[in-house]
Design a protein that fits this description.
single chain; 13-stranded mixed beta sheet; globular; alpha/beta; disordered N terminus; about 20% helix
Length: about 750
């Protein structure tokens, strides 16, 4: 019998046991590691989902901010200013979550109330699932900001052109909560500042609330001095040289709007890589001007990759809608135009071209003319309580903003002509910080000035009324004759113009008179409004009532203009004279030193050139050689011009182009009635088109017996950067800045200031 070896068997069994223990241990360790890895993966996935949920909440909060800023933009498009009280969350005028926004939000994982109403207090406000608020910074008062082109701010978009802007700010707060069953909820708190920017109209070389055309017969330099050019749409040609930036929300095109065929003109634009903002010693030189052709066609809207080509070629000197430029307009105008276009479309009328694109030229010619309201007499504020719905209220708010912006309401001195008797009435119109004052019925507050007492002697009066009359040999004895209004025929009555003639030298004597008991210097704000007789109210949808076609204001003896600051350091410098009708400017205006501008004395020294603006339905510039008596002579040799200088911003209208009929373009924007051949009109100022002409609306015609063009020595008035003409009314734009995420504590502390 063979005996088993007990030692050998034990060793084998022990080895197997040891192996099993190791396997078990390894299994346990591996299981632990795998479990840990699985747990870690699950935790990381959960954390990732939580992070994604928070990002979703942050995006939801940002969308709520955008919703609030859209409301602010709509409000500021039609209301001049928002007070801090209006922004309190429990007021009817506060920012709110509108039904459209809530309906969209309910399709997401955002917590939104089933029945939203404005919160009554802070606790309820903080308890809302999604909230929106606003705080007007600095009590809504604007802070002036100079955008310096030498500071490389990515958002300024103003290469080479300094811009002064009045900035108002509204700070908006929002929170959003999103839910996921497996994770719970996440809430994000955010803050954004919304800026309202009001620029000076008079810091532009050109501001065209419509289609800008420039096609001079001779070479023309434009933008010397550096003021930007803005227009809703542009057409350039005929060797125009642009020495500043162009901005348009529309197109930049070469070729005339009013002709069916395109033209292959050359337009030279500033290359801002070489531009230092100064006027070249030889503006006709192409030293820093460039014009680039692609496949034989000059760079213009419609070319492939136009956006990039324009940026690369002109380094920011040409910016269009493709570069993010949006429309600019005085408060209320853009809003009312949009309403009018929408109403026209609803009734089957559109302003589109044959390709279905909006035709700015057609709208200028046939659409609403809301900008003309800015030069019309005071109508009084509308009662907002009569509105039966939000749309009606918004429209009335926009019309009220225009009413508050009218030069007739903002000027401290109003002059009214009685066309039957020829009598003049004058009114003092008080302002509060240049804001017009209205009584409880919405009427302009004003006090009549006793003209007969102040100007008891006829020779002291700075005005005279002339009814048109003809003498022998075609000489005009009184008033003047305008061949454009007459369609070129001296026998037509349309050309016979009655005049309210204003002697600017005599007005200056009165305005600058010190120590007189008849003159209260405290109320002077540099604005004079002259109201001419109006035509009948036709009940137009745009509410425009034009002045009569046979009356106009004529300014003369204006080489040195009235300037109250010469005797009162606290008074505004310069003069803005406006009228609802046509305006003839006879001779050198506001240029005591002729063609020379001395910036060291500009708007400072007595008798120096002053900031000035002239505003009217149409503006005719007459030379130093002009004589009303020769105005009816059909032979242009009887109306020869002399070299003349005008220093003033011009705010006026034009007669827009139609098919086959040119508007005259910017080169003929100020109108002429003389033989200017070989003579120079030196002009420095700012050319502003806010409307089409209504009173003097005969089409542009060139040559005899109308006029021939001057040599155009035109430039932007660089002095406006320091002193703008009184009663500026600027275009408004918007931007969002200073986005910030907040903690819950920061958020609650901030919104506590809203109540």
């Amino acid at each position: 019998m063979i005996m088993k070896n007990p030692t050998a068997g034990h060793k084998h069994s022990s080895r197997r046991g040891s192996t099993l223990i190791v396997v078990i241990m390894l299994t346990v360790v591996a299981g632990t590691i795998i479990g840990s890895l699985l747990s870690f993966s699950l935790t990381e996935a959960k954390l990732n989902r939580a992070d994604m949920l928070y990002n979703e909440a942050r995006l939801a909060a940002e969308s709520t901010l955008q919703h609030g800023m859209a409301q602010l933009r709509r409000r500021f498009d039609r209301v001049r200013q928002i007070s801090p009280a209006e922004m309190e969350p429990n007021r009817a005028s506060s920012l709110q979550l509108e039904p459209g926004f809530l309906n969209i939000a309910r399709t997401t994982r955002m917590q939104v109330p089933s029945d939203y109403s404005r919160p009554a207090g802070l606790d309820e406000f903080l308890g809302e699932p999604t909230i929106l608020g606003g705080l007007v910074v600095n009590d809504g008062n604007p802070v002036n900001l100079l955008i310096d082109p030498n500071t490389p701010l990515p958002e300024d978009g103003n290469p080479g052109v300094p811009i002064n802007t009045d900035v108002r700010e509204v700070r908006i707060y929002a929170k959003a909560t999103v839910n996921e069953a497996a994770i719970g909820s996440r809430t994000a708190y955010v803050e954004q500042t919304f800026q309202v920017l009001d620029r000076s109209l008079f810091q532009n070389t050109v501001f065209y609330n419509g289609l800008l055309e420039v096609f001079p017969g001779a070479d023309m330099n434009l933008g010397q001095g550096g003021g930007p050019i803005y227009a809703k749409d542009t057409r350039f040609g005929n060797n125009v040289r642009i020495h500043t930036r162009i901005e348009t929300p529309g197109d930049f095109r070469i070729g005339r709007y009013h002709n069916s065929g395109d033209r292959n003109d050359t337009v030279y634009l500033t290359d801002f890589r070489k531009f230092d903002g100064s006027t070249p010693s030889d503006p006709s030189s192409a030293g820093y001007l460039t014009s680039v052709f692609v496949d034989g066609e000059q760079i213009q809207t419609g070319l492939p990759a136009f956006r990039e080509l324009a940026l690369q070629t002109y380094a920011g000197g040409l910016l269009t809608g493709e570069h993010g430029i949006t429309g600019q307009a005085a408060v209320g105008l853009e809003f009312l135009e949009e309403l009018a276009i929408s109403d026209a479309e609803a009734s089957g009328i559109d302003f589109n071209d044959s390709e279905g694109n909006f035709d700015q030229g057609r709208y200028d010619r046939e659409g609403g003319n809301f900008g003309h309201l800015l030069i019309e007499p005071s109508r009084g504020l509308a009662d907002l309580s009569v509105a039966t719905n939000d749309a009606e209220r918004a429209s009335l708010e926009a019309f009220n903003s225009i009413e508050q912006n009218k030069w007739s309401n903002r000027s401290s001195l109003a002059i009214e002509l009685d066309p039957v008797t020829g009598d003049i009435a004058m009114f003092h119109q008080p302002t509060d910080g240049n804001e017009p004052q209205f009584d409880s019925s919405g009427n302009r507050v004003r006090t009549e000035i006793n003209v007969n007492t102040i100007f008891s002697a006829a020779e002291d009066r700075f005005w005279e009324v002339e009814y048109f009359s003809n003498g022998r040999g075609g000489k005009v004895e009184s008033g003047l004759y305008d061949f454009r209004q007459a369609g070129g025929k001296p026998s037509r009555d349309d050309g016979e113009i009655n005049l309210l003639r204003i002697d600017m030298g005599k007005m200056r004597e009165w305005v600058e008179e010190s120590g007189s008991a008849t003159f209260d210097e405290a109320w002077w704000n540099g604005g004079v409004y002259v109201q001419l007789p109006e035509g009948s109210d036709t009940g137009r949808d745009d509410n425009v009532i034009p002045a009569g076609q046979n009356w106009a204001v004529q300014l003369h003896n204006g080489q040195t203009i009235p300037n109250r600051a010469a005797v009162d350091n606290d008074a505004p410098r310069g003069l803005t004279l406006s009228t609802n009708g046509a305006l003839y400017v006879q001779g050198t205006y506001n240029a005591p030193n002729g063609e020379t501008l001395d910036l060291d004395s500009y708007a400072v020294a007595d008798g120096a050139e002053m900031p000035a603006a002239l505003i009217g339905d149409a503006i005719m510039l007459l030379s130093d050689a002009w004589d009303n008596r020769n105005s009816g002579q059909k032979n242009l040799n009887d109306r020869k011009a002399a070299d003349t200088t005008v220093s003033a911003a011009l705010v006026t209208g034009n007669v827009p182009s139609a098919q086959g009929k040119y508007s005259g373009g910017l080169e003929n924007y100020p109108r002429f009635l003389e033989k200017w051949s070989g003579r120079t009109l030196t002009y420095r100022g700012s050319l502003i088109r806010l409307f089409r002409s209504e009173s003097f609306a005969k089409k542009w015609v060139y040559g005899g017996p109308y006029y021939t063009a001057p040599k155009r020595n035109w430039s932007f008035h660089t002095g406006y950067r320091q002193f703008s003409p009184p009663l500026d009314t600027g275009p408004r734009s918007f931007r969002q800045v200073y986005f910030k995420e907040l903690t819950r504590a920061e958020f609650e502390d901030a919104v506590a200031d809203l109540f």
